[in-house]
Amino acid sequence: MAALNGTSTADEVIETFSSSVNGRVFVITGAGQPSIGSQMALALAKASPAHILIASRTASKVEPVLAAIKELDDTIKTTFVQFDLTDHESVRAAAKAILDAAPRIDVLINSAGVMAVKEYTTDKQGIELQLSANHVGHFLLTNLLVPALAAAEGARVVNLTSSGYLISPFRFDDYNFSEGAAYNSWESYGQAKTANILFAHGLSKRLGHRGITGAAAHPGYNGDTKLGAHLTWDDYAAIGPLVKKNSGIDFAFEEPRFKTLGQIAATPLAAALDPGLEGALPAYIQNCEVVEVLGHAREEEAVEKLWALSEKLVGQKFAY
């Protein structure tokens, strides 16, 4: 990759890879303000993309982002599609609306998500909420958007993940935590983040021949996005023992421990735009660099089992 690192900003990434933005079509989920997604959208708007489409739950949080994009460059086409990732009917309707608005998608960034939901919660389909919002909804959306991704030359799908994948492998024998009886908010988060990485591998394996590749990007941590606003420092202290128990390693937050709003979008944008990554994908990107993940997040058996389970959960098979 280019000379980018953990302190690089989104604007620096855009400046480095501006040719990967110009004239292209981007779809970002969960880009309400303030969020990593909104920071990515605003950074992209500085390099003349043809179209930025934001799919998110709350219109009032997205409208300021679209207005800011227009202030930066009023020639950029912008579209908002409202949907709920945890409602599969809503995801299917959103996919249709996105395909109508963008018959070609160059980059899809699956940015929406939740973290460490304290109380066991299920979605409309009965799936544990963190798995639903962070993986299953995106699995369905991405596969439904394949016609538009395949229409591009070298489309890329970026799943936002986290070093939190170290907290837990995917619990294939009990992904729904015994209907709540075995629920742990961090293990649920770790399972979902592992799924994001495995899904990138599954996508690349099935769709690489159609020019579609997947990447998983760990953006780092920033408190301004409110993703962890419900958590205390004591809550974060529980991560280390869980990583040791489930992954067998000592956990340490990577540096920089905290990133600015300008920095938090850099790594996923590098994952989306860097042409030098082609030979490395699927890959896990951290601090704008490829980092090898533990076996539970890349092993072939886990990749295949997750794909099959995800098809079961959305009620549709996707064969390519």
Automatic annotation (TrEMBL):
Organism superkingdom: Eukaryota
UniProt entry keywords in alphabetical sequence: Oxidoreductase
Q: Matching InterPro entries, A to Z?
A: NAD(P)-bd_dom_sf, SDR_fam
A Pfam family it matches: adh_short
In Gene Ontology terms, what is one molecular function of this protein? oxidoreductase activity
Protein name, entry field: Uncharacterized protein
Q: Which organism is it from?
A: Stachybotrys chlorohalonatus (strain IBT 40285)
Upper lineage ranks? Eukaryota, Fungi, Dikarya, Ascomycota, Pezizomycotina
